[in-house]
Amino acid sequence: MNARATIPYVEVQSTLGAVLAGLDGHGEKTLAIIYGDREVQQGFHVTEVKAGSFTTLDCGGNPDAWQETVLQVEDIPSEGKPQMTAAKFASILAQVDSKVPLNHEARFTIEIGRPGEPMCVFDVADLSIEDDRAILTLGIRAAICKPRHRAAQFEAASCGGPAATSNCC
């Protein structure tokens, strides 16, 4: 979970279970979320948790399927309320899990934005614990052509040998 998402695209996937395990024992700490070039405001609000199951076909005609837990966060000022703690965050997810079962091993995605701004999609790139807070650092979720991405990975793995055909439309 310590990989950084950077350009060029580096796939970073974290799970809900990994994030909750990392927060375990740090419930009293405030939770900060860093995304893009900003830190979430102290009044951030978890607006929705989605348990998604996706079946797709990429541009090369390759089928794929996966599950994902998507957390939607509104980045708003505190209005006098204390910042959310790691324990409160975990209790929100536990409450959702009791009503809508969440796959703790599924990819964990965070959709976040401020009112009036476009919502952006991120993966959890890092979870660090400081003296008084837990920090989720989010990494980019880039749009990619999966066949071309797989071909580039194959080429890199084969030490610069002939690249596999991307089979993109």
Give a description of the structure.
The protein has 169 residues and is an alpha/beta fold. The chain has one domain (16-143). The chain contains three helices and seven strands, in the order αββββαβββα. The longest helix has 14 residues, at 86-99.
| Structural class category | alpha/beta
Largest sheet: 7 strands, mixed
**Cα gyration radius (Å):** 18 Å
List the uncertain runs: 1-9
How many alpha or pi helices?
Answer: 3
The domain tally reads: 1
Overall geometry comes to elongated
Alpha-carbon distance between the termini?
33 Å
Strand order of the largest sheet: 2-1-7-6-5-4-3
Tell me the β content: 25-35%
Q: Name the average pLDDT.
A: 88
Task: Specify the helix fraction band.
Answer: 10-25%
**Elements, N to C (H/E):** HEEEEHEEEH
Number of β-strand runs = 7
SSE layout and pairing:
Layout: H1 16-23, E1 30-35, E2 38-39, E3 45-57, E4 63-74, H2 86-99, E5 107-113, E6 120-129, E7 133-140, H3 146-157
Parallel strand pairs: 1-7, 4-5
Antiparallel strand pairs: 1-2, 3-4, 5-6, 6-7
